[in-house]
Design goal:
- About 20% of the residues are buried.
- The chain has a five-stranded antiparallel sheet with strand order 1-2-3-4-5.
- Strand 3 (about 130-140) and strand 4 form a beta hairpin.
- The protein has a domain at about 55-165: Nuclear Transport Factor 2, Chain: A.
- Helices cover about 40% and strands about 20% of the residues.
- It has about 180 residues and is an alpha+beta fold.
């Protein structure tokens, strides 16, 4: 009888041991991890695409912030290095009595707008309505090319004619 009780005890011990599954992971677990992996890959692709598609605009904004820093310091030599050849030929540089340089932007609003317009980057440094400045790529760097227009309410852009961008006193924006 003791042997029978011993065999029954062994059988009970054998039955309580977990049996290893032949499947590594269930199909629902693989589907879950596959979906998570696909979502992570998609998110990384979107981040890379956004970085590449906005690279030129961000470089134009970087040039704008360097320009405003040099203008506020009234450092004419630094400003000249940040301006396009066309702008240098057509615009004189004068310090303004209130600070900065005459005809140059001095600040950027937190709600500024910037976008690509053909090969150029256009920047409206004000809060949705105001002047639009152009930056062009010259010698591998983004350079300030002056005022190109006015952003009006309703996202209307009033572009200045090329003749009025020459830097003389007649280049006024009028509605």
């Amino acid at each position: 009888m003791t042997s029978q009780t011993g065999n029954n005890a062994l059988k009970k011990n054998d039955q309580t041991k977990p049996i290893a599954s032949s499947k590594a992971l269930s199909t629902s677990a693989l589907g879950k991890w596959g979906a998570i992996g696909a979502a992570l890959v998609m998110a990384m692709l979107i981040v890379v695409w956004l970085g590449l598609s906005t690279r030129e605009t961000r470089a134009g904004i970087s040039a704008y912030t360097r320009l405003t820093g040099a203008v506020n310091l009234q450092d004419i030599e630094a400003v000249k290095k940040l301006c396009s050849a066309r702008f240098l030929q057509t615009h004189p540089f004068k310090t303004a009595p209130e600070g900065g340089l005459v005809g140059f932007p001095r600040y950027i609003h937190k709600n500024f707008q910037a976008w690509r317009e053909g090969p150029a980057v256009w920047v409206c440094p004000t809060n949705r309505v105001g002047p639009i400045y152009q930056f062009l790529r010259e010698d591998g760097e983004w350079k300030f090319d002056g005022l190109v227009g006015l952003l009006r309410s309703g996202h209307q852009i009033m572009v200045l004619p090329e003749e009025s961008r020459n830097g003389n006193d007649e280049s006024q924006i009028a509605p």
